[in-house]
Amino acid sequence: xxxxxxxxxxxxxxxxxxxxxxxxxxxxxxxxxxxxxxxxxxxxxxxxxxxxxxxxxxxxxxxxxxxxxxxxxxxxxxxxxxxxxxxxxxxxxxxxxxxxxxxxxxxxxxxxxxxxxxxxxxxxxxxxxxxxxxxxxxxx
Length: 140
Hints:
The protein is mainly α.
């Protein structure tokens, strides 16, 4: 993002600070603050990942129930979706028996499940890419 802002603020700094030496100092200070902000963001995300890892380890050490709630809930969601989209229509077509299903509730619960569980993996992947980018920038 810094690459986008430098040309814009460079022209603005030329108008505000006509002296090239003072302008170079100001640009260096702005870049230092931007890099510090990126580093702070990276540190915050790294701390979040560490906290999530500690939680996963703590859940694993607490026993079978605590470390198996995620897959158990996933299987419950799979069963609910199968009943809603496959079993109920087949039973109704075959023998005329209808299973009452609240599709709106199922969609909301499945949506929240995907946002919480699957979204965590997406955030983790994004943080890893951000971390690699910050490390590459720091190495330059």
